[in-house]
């Protein structure tokens, strides 16, 4: 979806903020449901979620089509279930196999949203990052379940457009 979104003849037909995460005044994640359209001869449309991540001077922009959004929601549910089954280790992070680079998933070549839940001395934090990028965006106290709900809300909004 990212390549489509950056096309020269593409414009936003509809968009609505589905949710946001923030940590202080500095770190934010904004999730926007959107419908994009290409003005070319085929007039293609694409639906999905745009994720804007920022912290300090660092910024990342990620586009998830409907399949990638569903896959991300499933991975977030997997993380939440794994954390519930295990004794949380305060010094480790829990991710999902959908985000794992060691698996040869077809989507690993795309810049998509990855997430993990990390423990630390002050409690857990949801850590988001764009696949292939080194910038981490930390949201202490946030959960994979909350982010999965935001993505579900975005997809519900898209069904109406």
Structure description:
With 161 residues, this protein is α+β, with helices and mostly antiparallel strands. The chain has one domain: Secreted effector protein pipB2 fold (2-Layer Sandwich). 25% of the residues lie in helices and 39% in strands. It has 3 helices and 8 strands, in the order H-E-E-E-E-H-E-E-E-E-H. The strands form 2 sheets. Strands 1-2-3-4 form a 4-stranded antiparallel β-sheet. A 4-stranded antiparallel β-sheet has the order 5-6-7-8, with helices on one face. Helix 2 runs antiparallel to helix 3 (144-159). It is globular. The two termini are 17 Å apart.
Topology at a glance:
Elements: H1 2-5, E1 10-23, E2 27-38, E3 45-55, E4 58-65, H2 66-85, E5 93-94, E6 113-118, E7 125-130, E8 137-140, H3 144-159
Antiparallel strand pairs: 1-2, 2-3, 3-4, 5-6, 6-7, 7-8
| Secondary-structure arrangement, i.e. CATH architecture | 2-Layer Sandwich
Kindly state the number of beta strands. 8
- What's the rounded overall pLDDT mean? 88
Radius of gyration: 16 Å
Tell me the name of the CATH class. Alpha Beta
Total individual domains:
1
Strand portion: 35-45%
Strand order in the sheet with the most strands? 1-2-3-4
Find the CATH topology.
Secreted effector protein pipB2 fold
Report how far apart the termini are: 17 Å
Secondary structure tally, helices = 3
Topology as a string of helices (H) and strands (E): HEEEEHEEEEH
């Amino acid at each position: 979806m990212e390549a489509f979104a950056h096309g020269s003849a593409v414009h936003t037909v509809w968009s609505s903020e589905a949710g946001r995460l923030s940590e202080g005044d500095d770190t934010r994640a904004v999730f926007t449901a959107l419908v994009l359209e290409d003005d070319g001869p085929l007039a293609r449309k694409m639906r999905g979620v745009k994720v804007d991540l920022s912290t300090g001077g660092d910024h990342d922009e990620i586009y998830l089509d409907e399949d990638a959004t569903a896959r991300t929601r499933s991975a977030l549910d997997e993380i939440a279930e794994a954390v519930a089954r295990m004794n949380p280790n305060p010094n480790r992070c829990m991710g999902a196999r959908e985000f794992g680079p060691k698996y040869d998933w077809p989507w690993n070549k795309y810049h998509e949203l990855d997430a993990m839940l990390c423990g630390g001395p002050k409690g857990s934090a949801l850590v988001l990052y764009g696949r292939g990028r080194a910038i981490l965006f930390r949201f202490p106290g946030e959960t994979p379940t909350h982010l999965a709900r935001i993505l579900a809300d975005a997809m519900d909004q898209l069904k109406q457009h």
